[in-house]
């Protein structure tokens, strides 16, 4: 399987991107990874770190899209950038199954829509990370930043796409879907969430279980939480910040609490390591962009090699399980049913 990687995207590019790609090939030697970016710099990283070049190929790109660039204009004008060239390979190479980038989120989203195109019937694609929970598996948060303003139908489509994603990734047949809101009661929320609640609760296409407050996203009581990109992004950043703050508070408490605290921490070292691993985005891959015609995974901008490796293996798994076909079928079924109901009401 061929995975295209934007080697110049992210705060730690190209070193951490290239090392993560090399780790992914080492983890699965059936992978073929195309690194797109400044060829000399990429090859220098490979040589300096003693990485095997087996399974890695490099496509030179003279330019880079930064966070300061206008996403749409950059995709249109920066033809020699690593991201645009990666999209071109993804779309014109039949063997290319997926793409991974830690670069500008806006540019990745713009390129996904402009070059890869939406799956037929999808009103808006959405960015969907998997967050850790208190229970066995994670929760899909959809959307976390791609669509700031949403109509209720967009949220319905997010729920369908994220449910299919959860089925493939978690192995569950009937994912529980919650709607991010400021209260669990049906009457809570603004006009958008009230209308979305009515639409979601009236559909047989998903297993809608009601409103979800932000504090319950990580509870494990939901497999999917849908939101507009504005509130979803705030919820995501809040969860990340809270996790980092709690881990720092525990660490500071151990080191400032004297000998007893240090002995206690030593006894709980394994527990702390498990918590840190579960809450660390560097261990858990990236966010899949659901609703476009090929697998695209957006890694965190500060991703290190571990996160890039995880994102590449995540993209491989999603391509193998054909997430795009799954979404296309589920959206088509919903649209046909909705059209039939609308026709019968006329």
Helix-strand sequence: EHEHEHHEHEEEHEHEEHHHEEHH
| Overall tally of domains | 2
The chain-level mean pLDDT equals 91
What is the share of helical residues? 40-55%
Walk me through the structure.
By secondary structure, the chain is an alpha/beta fold. It folds into two domains: 178 residues, Isopropylmalate Dehydrogenase, CATH 3.40.718; 163 residues, Isopropylmalate Dehydrogenase (3-Layer(aba) Sandwich), CATH 3.40.718. It contains twelve helices and twelve strands. Strands 3-2-1-4-12-11-5 form a seven-stranded mixed sheet, sandwiched between helices. It has a five-stranded mixed sheet with strand order 6-7-10-8-9, with helices on both faces. Strand 1, helix 1 and strand 2 form a beta-alpha-beta unit. The radius of gyration is 21 Å and the shape is globular. The relative contact order is 0.16.
SSE layout and pairing:
Blueprint lengths: L1 E5 L8 H13 L4 E6 L1 H10 L7 E5 L10 H7 L4 H11 L3 E6 L3 H12 L9 E3 L1 E2 L7 E4 L9 H19 L5 E5 L10 H11 L5 E6 L11 E3 L2 H28 L1 H10 L1 H11 L7 E4 L4 E4 L6 H16 L2 H23 L1
Parallel strand pairs: 1-2, 1-4, 2-3, 4-12, 7-10, 8-9, 8-10
Antiparallel strand pairs: 5-11, 6-7, 11-12
Descriptive key words:
single chain; 346 residues; alpha/beta; Isopropylmalate Dehydrogenase; 2 domains; seven-stranded mixed β-sheet; five-stranded mixed β-sheet; 12 helices; 12 strands
In brief:
With 346 residues, this protein is an alpha/beta fold. It contains twelve helices and twelve strands.
